[in-house]
């Protein structure tokens, strides 16, 4: 029986025990990481790795699109924002445009920061 990587076990445990809010935060952080990777690999002219990182970022945005509740105005607006981000990620994947990746990274960071702040406020009361 192969021994599991302790870091991998830790990551798995942190995901399995996370609240839905914490999972959302982790998704935003993953989105930022994959966009940054896509950008770095594009700069290095490693097209395959840039493509794969971009696809992973798109998968996270698609997950946000699937799970957002569009029955509320804020949900509809978030859906439209995610749709825009997804379209721009596709454009960046085709053109390896670093400016687009930077634009979407900054949007993801703002969403992550807002979500983090909302979690803090909710915990207070």
Topology:
Layout: H1 6-16, H2 20-43, H3 47-67, H4 73-95, H5 98-124
Helix pairs in contact: 2-3, 2-5, 3-4, 4-5
3D architecture notes:
With 125 residues, this protein is an all-alpha fold. The protein has one domain (21-124): Four Helix Bundle (Hemerythrin (Met), subunit A), CATH 1.20.120.340. It is built from five helices and no strands. It has helices at residues 6-16, 20-43, 47-67, 73-95, 98-124. The termini are far apart. The mean pLDDT is 91.
Q: How many discrete domains?
A: 1
Order of helices and strands: HHHHH
The major pleated sheet works out as: none
Give the CA-based shape.
globular
Give the overall average pLDDT. Answer: 91
What's the CATH H-level homologous superfamily? Flagellar protein FliS
What is the C-alpha radius of gyration, as a whole number of Å? 16 Å
CATH topology assignment: Four Helix Bundle (Hemerythrin (Met), subunit A)
User: How many helices does DSSP assign?
Assistant: 5
> Helix- and strand-based class?
mainly alpha
- CATH architectural designation: Up-down Bundle
Query: Which residues form runs of ≥5 with pLDDT under 50?
Result: none
The tally of beta strands, per DSSP, is 0
Distance between the termini: 47 Å
Strand content: under 5%
The first-level CATH class is given as Mainly Alpha
| Helical content class | over 70%
Features:
single chain, 125 residues, mainly alpha, Four Helix Bundle (Hemerythrin (Met), subunit A)
Summarize this, please?
By secondary structure, the protein is an all-alpha fold.
